[in-house]
C-alpha cells in the first residue's frame, strides 16, 4: 500500500516535471488548437470575435457612460461580443499596472483607456506596441471633426495613435456663490484680482482656496495652471517639448506664485483627497477650488448642489481663452487577433452618437466639435463653446504633457515644495527630471 | 547477525528519508522558482537600466542604488522606517508585556480581556488604516474632543521633525507625523505580543516565583529578576516578527496617510509601488525591494543562524 502511494507520488512528480519542461511546446500546441477552433466557428456561423475594452471606468457616472457606449455598439454590431474588462481602484493606477503586465506579456486587450498624449506616446508607442491610425482617421473623415490641436496631442512623430472620446478641463476654479456674494467678491480674471479676493476672504475668516493633496496631483494641477498663465500656450507647450528649460525665469516666477496660492489653503490639506476638499467649498468653509471639471459632477450629483445657483465656475486666472485638456482615448494595440472588430468599436466611440451617449453620463464634453450641445447641461454647453474657441494645451498632472516617469518625479517635487517652499530646490528637481520627459 | 540488523535499519531509514525528500521536492521546486528565483530576478533587474516600459537589461552597475541613496524621498523613507520600527517595536513589547502580566493575575473573566485585546489582530491593516485615518484626522477625529481642552494636535499632517538636523538632503530626526501611524500599528499588533507573553508567562512554573518569594524577594523583584529574564526568548521572537512587519509595512500607510506632506510618513514600500507602477521605473523599484530585503535580513538571518545552532 505504502509502496503504491509512493509510486503514484513519484509518477505525479515526474509528470509535473515533464509538463514543466515541455511547457513551451505544449503552449504552442494550445495556441494552435485555439486558433483552429476560432477559425471553425468563424467559418461556420459567420460570428465574429470578442472585443475586450480595458478601462478604469468603474465609478458612478463613468461606468454608466461606458455601459451606454457598449449598448450602442451591440445595437449596431450584434455579432461582436463585448467584454468589459474594467479594473477599479487608484484612479487608474491598478488598471495601468495590469495593463503593463499584459502588454509586456504580449497579451494586449483589444483596446484600452489611456490619457491622450505622452502617457501613451512615451510608453506603448515608444515601445512599438501600438498601430498608427492615420489611414483609419482619413477613411472616416475625422481629421476635421476633432480640433487640430487635439489631434496633435494624440500624435507622435506625425502618426495618430488613439481616438479621444471625452474632454475634461483642468484650468477651472469652482466657487461657492453664497460665499462670494457675502464677501462682495467679483469673479477674478487675473492673478492680481485673485490674490486681492483671497486676502479679502482670509480677513473675513473664510479659507480662500480649498486643497486636498493627500495625493499630490491636486497641487501639481495648480502649478501647471499657474505655469500656463505665466508662459502662455505656445511656450507652455515648448516647455514640455524640451525647447524651453525649466530653468527659465518664468518657471521660477510661476513657482513663487504657486507658493503664494498655497499660503491661502486649508491647514489640513495633507489629510484630504480632492472630494474632501470639494466638501469644504460645498459647505462654505472655503470659497474656491481648482479642480478638473469632474468636480462639477461631484457638486451636482453627489452633493446635490445646483450649478450656477449654489456653485459657479471660472477659468483659472490668467488662462482665459486657454483650455487645459484632459482626454481619455482609445487606441489599437499591435498583435490583436481581430483588429477589424476593434475598429468597429473605435468607430462607434468616435461617432457623434457614441460621444453623445457617453459624455452626458460621464459629465464630460465630447471631443468632437460637431456634437449636439442640446444633450448637455449649461456647464457642458459653456465648456463646449470654450473648447471650440480656446487654445488647447496638454495637462501635466493628468499625463498628457510628459511621460509618467517625469510626472511621478514632478509630483514628488511638488509634494516637497508644498511644505518647504524652496523654489531653487523645486526648479532643480524639475531640471534634473526633465531628460525623462 | 548484528551487522545484518544494522544494515536493515539503515536501509529502512534511508527509504523513509527518500519518501520525505520526494514529498518535499514539489514545494522545494516551487519555492526555488517563485521565491528565490524571483528574488534573484529582482536583484538582476535592480542592476539594469530597465527604467521605462521598454525592457532594457543592459548592466547599470549600482546606478539605481546610488540614485536612491541621493534621493530626498528615499532618505526620508529610511529615516521614517527607522523611527517607525523603533517606536513600534518598543511600544508593542512594553504594552504587550504589561497587559500580559496584568491578565496573568488569575483574574476573573480573563478570556474576555484576552479576546478584547486580541481582536484588532483579526482586522487587516487596510481597515485599521482607514479607521485611524478618521480618528486622527485633525478636523474630524479626536480633535473634536480635545478642542474642549484647547489642544489641537495636527497628528499625521504635522510636518515637524523633532530634534531635527540637516543630514544628507533631509532633516534627520523624529517625524511627528509618524507617531500617528505608530499608534495605529500598535493598536493592531499589541494583541499578538500579549498572546505570546501570556504563553511565556504560563510556561514559567509557579514554584520558581514561590521560591523567590520564600527567599524574601518583593513582588517587583520577582518580576524583574525572575520572570523577565525567563521571557527573553519571547521578546526576541516578538522583535523579529514585529521588525519584519514594520520594515515591510505598506498597506497601513497606504490606507491611512499616504506619503504625507514632505514625505513625513512615506516608507520604502509605498515608494517602490509608486515608482514602479506609476513612474515605470522598474529598475529603481527593484533596487528598493532589494534594500528592503536586506533590511529584513539584518533581523532574520542572525535569528535563523542561532536557531540552526540550537538544532544541532
UniProtKB/TrEMBL annotation, chain A:
<comment type="function">
    <text>Part of a binding-protein-dependent transport system for a sugar.</text>
</comment>
<dbReference type="GO" id="GO:0030313">
    <property type="term" value="C:cell envelope"/>
</dbReference>
<dbReference type="InterPro" id="IPR050490">
    <property type="entry name" value="Bact_solute-bd_prot1"/>
</dbReference>
<protein>
    <recommendedName>
        <fullName>Probable sugar-binding periplasmic protein</fullName>
    </recommendedName>
</protein>
<feature type="region of interest" description="Disordered">
    <location>
        <begin position="24"/>
        <end position="47"/>
    </location>
</feature>
<feature type="signal peptide">
    <location>
        <begin position="1"/>
        <end position="22"/>
    </location>
</feature>
<keyword id="KW-0813">Transport</keyword>
<dbReference type="InterPro" id="IPR006059">
    <property type="entry name" value="SBP"/>
</dbReference>
<comment type="similarity">
    <text>Belongs to the bacterial solute-binding protein 1 family.</text>
</comment>
<dbReference type="Pfam" id="PF01547">
    <property type="entry name" value="SBP_bac_1"/>
</dbReference>
<feature type="compositionally biased region" description="Basic and acidic residues">
    <location>
        <begin position="29"/>
        <end position="47"/>
    </location>
</feature>
<keyword id="KW-0732">Signal</keyword>
UniProtKB/TrEMBL annotation, chain B:
<keyword id="KW-0472">Membrane</keyword>
<feature type="transmembrane region" description="Helical">
    <location>
        <begin position="222"/>
        <end position="247"/>
    </location>
</feature>
<keyword id="KW-1003">Cell membrane</keyword>
<keyword id="KW-1133">Transmembrane helix</keyword>
<dbReference type="GO" id="GO:0055085">
    <property type="term" value="P:transmembrane transport"/>
</dbReference>
<comment type="similarity">
    <text>Belongs to the binding-protein-dependent transport system permease family.</text>
</comment>
<dbReference type="Pfam" id="PF00528">
    <property type="entry name" value="BPD_transp_1"/>
</dbReference>
<feature type="transmembrane region" description="Helical">
    <location>
        <begin position="172"/>
        <end position="201"/>
    </location>
</feature>
<dbReference type="InterPro" id="IPR000515">
    <property type="entry name" value="MetI-like"/>
</dbReference>
<keyword id="KW-0812">Transmembrane</keyword>
<keyword id="KW-0813">Transport</keyword>
<protein>
    <submittedName>
        <fullName>Sugar ABC transporter permease</fullName>
    </submittedName>
</protein>
<feature type="transmembrane region" description="Helical">
    <location>
        <begin position="21"/>
        <end position="44"/>
    </location>
</feature>
<feature type="transmembrane region" description="Helical">
    <location>
        <begin position="281"/>
        <end position="305"/>
    </location>
</feature>
<dbReference type="InterPro" id="IPR035906">
    <property type="entry name" value="MetI-like_sf"/>
</dbReference>
<dbReference type="GO" id="GO:0005886">
    <property type="term" value="C:plasma membrane"/>
</dbReference>
<feature type="transmembrane region" description="Helical">
    <location>
        <begin position="82"/>
        <end position="103"/>
    </location>
</feature>
<feature type="domain" description="ABC transmembrane type-1">
    <location>
        <begin position="78"/>
        <end position="305"/>
    </location>
</feature>
<dbReference type="InterPro" id="IPR051393">
    <property type="entry name" value="ABC_transporter_permease"/>
</dbReference>
<feature type="transmembrane region" description="Helical">
    <location>
        <begin position="115"/>
        <end position="135"/>
    </location>
</feature>
Amino acid at each position: 500500500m505504502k509502496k503504491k502511494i509512493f509510486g503514484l507520488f513519484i509518477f505525479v512528480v515526474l509528470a509535473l516535471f515533464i509538463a514543466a519542461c515541455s511547457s513551451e511546446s505544449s503552449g504552442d500546441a494550445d495556441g494552435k488548437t485555439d486558433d483552429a477552433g476560432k477559425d471553425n466557428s468563424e467559418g461556420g456561423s459567420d460570428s465574429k470575435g470578442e472585443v475586450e475594452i480595458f478601462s478604469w471606468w468603474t465609478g458612478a457616472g463613468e461606468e454608466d457612460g461606458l455601459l451606454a457606449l457598449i449598448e450602442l455598439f451591440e445595437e449596431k454590431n450584434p455579432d461582436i461580443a463585448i467584454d468589459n474588462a474594467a479594473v477599479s481602484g487608484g484612479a487608474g493606477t491598478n488598471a495601468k499596472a495590469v495593463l503593463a503586465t499584459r502588454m509586456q506579456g504580449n497579451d494586449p486587450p483589444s483596446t484600452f483607456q489611456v490619457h491622450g498624449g505622452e502617457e501613451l506616446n512615451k510608453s506603448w508607442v515608444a515601445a512599438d506596441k501600438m498601430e498608427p491610425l492615420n489611414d483609419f482617421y482619413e477613411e472616416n473623415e475625422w481629421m476635421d471633426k476633432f480640433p487640430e490641436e487635439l489631434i496633435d496631442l494624440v500624435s507622435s512623430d506625425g502618426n495618430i495613435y488613439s481616438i479621444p472620446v471625452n474632454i475634461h478641463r483642468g484650468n477651472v476654479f469652482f466657487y461657492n456663490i453664497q460665499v462670494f456674494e457675502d464677501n462682495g467678491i467679483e469673479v477674478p480674471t487675473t492673478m492680481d484680482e485673485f490674490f486681492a479676493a483671497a486676502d479679502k476672504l482670509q480677513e473675513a475668516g473664510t479659507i480662500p482656496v480649498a486643497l486636498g493633496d493627500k495625493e499630490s496631483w491636486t497641487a501639481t494641477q495648480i502649478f501647471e495652471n499657474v505655469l500656463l498663465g505665466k508662459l502662455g500656450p505656445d511656450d507652455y507647450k515648448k516647455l514640455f517639448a524640451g525647447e524651453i528649460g525649466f530653468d527659465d525665469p518664468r518657471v521660477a516666477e510661476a513657482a513663487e506664485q504657486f507658493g503664494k496660492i498655497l499660503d491661502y489653503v486649508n491647514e489640513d490639506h495633507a489629510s484630504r483627497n480632492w472630494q474632501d476638499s470639494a466638501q469644504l467649498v460645498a459647505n462654505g468653509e472655503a470659497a474656491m477650488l481648482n479642480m478638473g471639471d469632474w468636480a462639477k459632477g461631484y457638486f451636482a450629483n453627489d452633493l446635490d448642489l445646483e450649478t450656477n445657483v449654489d456653485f459657479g465656475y471660472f477659468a483659472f486666472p490668467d488662462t482665459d481663452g486657454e483650455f487645459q485638456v484632459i482626454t481619455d482615448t482609445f487606441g489599437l494595440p499591435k498583435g490583436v487577433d481581430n483588429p477589424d472588430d476593434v475598429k468597429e468599436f473605435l468607430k462607434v466611440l468616435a461617432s457623434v452618437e457614441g460621444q453623445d451617449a457617453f459624455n452626458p453620463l460621464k459629465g464630460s464634453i465630447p471631443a468632437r466639435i460637431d456634437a449636439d450641445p442640446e444633450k448637455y447641461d449649461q456647464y457642458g454647453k459653456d465648456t463646449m463653446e470654450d473648447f471650440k474657441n480656446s487654445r488647447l494645451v496638454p495637462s501635466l498632472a493628468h499625463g498628457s504633457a510628459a511621460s509618467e516617469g517625469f510626472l511621478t518625479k514632478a509630483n514628488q517635487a511638488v509634494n516637497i515644495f508644498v511644505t518647504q517652499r524652496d523654489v531653487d530646490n523645486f526648479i532643480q528637481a524639475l531640471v534634473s527630471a526633465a531628460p525623462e520627459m | 547477525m548484528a551487522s545484518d540488523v544494522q544494515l536493515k535499519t539503515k536501509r529502512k531509514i534511508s527509504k523513509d528519508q527518500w519518501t520525505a525528500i520526494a514529498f518535499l521536492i514539489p514545494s522545494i521546486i516551487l519555492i526555488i522558482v517563485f521565491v528565490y528565483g524571483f528574488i534573484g530576478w529582482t536583484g538582476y533587474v535592480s542592476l539594469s537600466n530597465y527604467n521605462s516600459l521598454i525592457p532594457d537589461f543592459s548592466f547599470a552597475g549600482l546606478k539605481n542604488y546610488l540614485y536612491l541613496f541621493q534621493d530626498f524621498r528615499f532618505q526620508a523613507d529610511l529615516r521614517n522606517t527607522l523611527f517607525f520600527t523603533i517606536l513600534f517595536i518598543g511600544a508593542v513589547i512594553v504594552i504587550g508585556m504589561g497587559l500580559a502580566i496584568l491578565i496573568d493575575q488569575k483574574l476573573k473573566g480573563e478570556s474576555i480581556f484576552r479576546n478584547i485585546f486580541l481582536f484588532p489582530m483579526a482586522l487587516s491593516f487596510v481597515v485599521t488604516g482607514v479607521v485611524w485615518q478618521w480618528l486622527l484626522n485633525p478636523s474630524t477625529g479626536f480633535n473634536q474632543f480635545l478642542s474642549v481642552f484647547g489642544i489641537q494636535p495636527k497628528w499625521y499632517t504635522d510636518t515637524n521633525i523633532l530634534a531635527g538636523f540637516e543630514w544628507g538632503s533631509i532633516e534627520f530626526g523624529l517625524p511627528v507625523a509618524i507617531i500617528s501611524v505608530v499608534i495605529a500599528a500598535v493598536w493592531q499588533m499589541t494583541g499578538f505580543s500579549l498572546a505570546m507573553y501570556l504563553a511565556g508567562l504560563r510556561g514559567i512554573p509557579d514554584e520558581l516565583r514561590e521560591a523567590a518569594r520564600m527567599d524574601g524577594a518583593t513582588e517587583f523583584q520577582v518580576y524583574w529578576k525572575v520572570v523577565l529574564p525567563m521571557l527573553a526568548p519571547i521578546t526576541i521572537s516578538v522583535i523579529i516578527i514585529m521588525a519584519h512587519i514594520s520594515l515591510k509595512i505598506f498597506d497601513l500607510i497606504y490606507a491611512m496617510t499616504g506619503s504625507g506632506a514632505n514625505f513625513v510618513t512615506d516608507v520604502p514600500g509605498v515608494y517602490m509601488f509608486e515608482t514602479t507602477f506609476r513612474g515605470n521605473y522598474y529598475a529603481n523599484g527593484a533596487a528598493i525591494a532589494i534594500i528592503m530585503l536586506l533590511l529584513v535580513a539584518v533581523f532574520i538571518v542572525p535569528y535563523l543562524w542561532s536557531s540552526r545552532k540550537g538544532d544541532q
